């Protein structure tokens, strides 16, 4: 079979690129253990207020875990509960959040915390707060007329 030189080059390039991409994903997934954010934890969105830990939103000290505090948030149009949280400097915090109605965002400005909160699912993010100051939590998923008013605050204090 006759193949043009450029066709061969492009074929080799394409196959090589494919191998590189698949290897990258393979190493990332199986060696480094990276995986997409899980949606494995589900919740009845109509019974959020009665379901632990969402029956007690706020900061809770935990023992015997890889993190120091659970920080529980319940989102609904157009607010987060709690509205202000004080976290001791250096604390490792597992943020656990869900929504009672529609999809909301959960972005902590100036950090790498950025979650989507979906009705029926629990979102988690664990983070060490090493810098004192105020952190604004904003909703970055359009959720209705009051979307731009939806915010909360974390104060990291010494
Ligand atoms: Cu909640 Cu936008």
Fill in the keyword field for this structure.
binds dinuclear copper ion, five-stranded mixed beta sheet, 158 residues, 10 strands, single chain
Brief description of this entry?
This protein is of the alpha+beta class and 158 residues long.
Could you explain the architecture of this structure?
The protein has 158 residues and is of the alpha+beta class. It is 17% helix and 35% strand. It is elongated. Bound molecules: dinuclear copper ion (CUA). Dinuclear copper ion binds next to β6.
Strand and helix map with partners:
Layout: H1 5-31, E1 58-61, E2 69-76, E3 79-81, E4 84-88, E5 92-99, E6 104-108, E7 114-117, E8 123-128, E9 133-138, E10 151-157
Parallel strand pairs: 2-5, 4-10
Antiparallel strand pairs: 1-2, 2-3, 5-8, 6-7, 6-9, 9-10
The protein binds dinuclear copper ion.
Distance between the termini: 73 Å
Order of helices and strands: HEEEEEEEEEE
Overall mean pLDDT score?
Answer: 94
Amount of beta strand: 35-45%
Give helix % range.
Answer: 10-25%
- Extended strand count: 10
Multimeric status of the protein: single chain
Unreliable spans:
none
Distinct bound molecules: dinuclear copper ion
Shape: elongated
Number of alpha- plus pi-helical segments: 1
- How many whole angstroms does the radius of gyration measure? 21 Å
Question: What structural class do you assign from the helix and strand content?
Answer: alpha+beta
Report the biggest beta sheet as strand number plus sense, adding barrel if it closes. 5 strands, mixed
């Amino acid at each position: 079979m006759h193949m043009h030189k450029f066709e061969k080059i492009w074929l080799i390039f394409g196959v090589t690129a494919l191998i590189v991409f698949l290897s990258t994903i393979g190493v990332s997934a199986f060696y480094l253990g990276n995986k997409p954010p899980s949606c494995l934890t589900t919740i009845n969105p109509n019974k959020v207020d009665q379901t632990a830990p969402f029956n007690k939103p706020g900061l809770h000290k935990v023992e015997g875990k890889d993190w120091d505090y659970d920080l529980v948030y319940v989102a609904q149009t157009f607010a987060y509960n709690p509205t202000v949280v004080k976290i001791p400097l250096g604390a490792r915090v597992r943020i656990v959040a869900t929504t009672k109605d529609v999809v909301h965002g959960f972005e902590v400005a100036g950090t790498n915390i950025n979650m989507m909160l979906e009705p029926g699912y629990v979102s988690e993010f664990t983070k060490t707060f090493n810098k004192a100051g105020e952190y604004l939590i904003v909703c970055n998923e359009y959720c209705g007329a009051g979307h731009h008013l939806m915010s909360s605050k974390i104060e990291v204090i010494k």
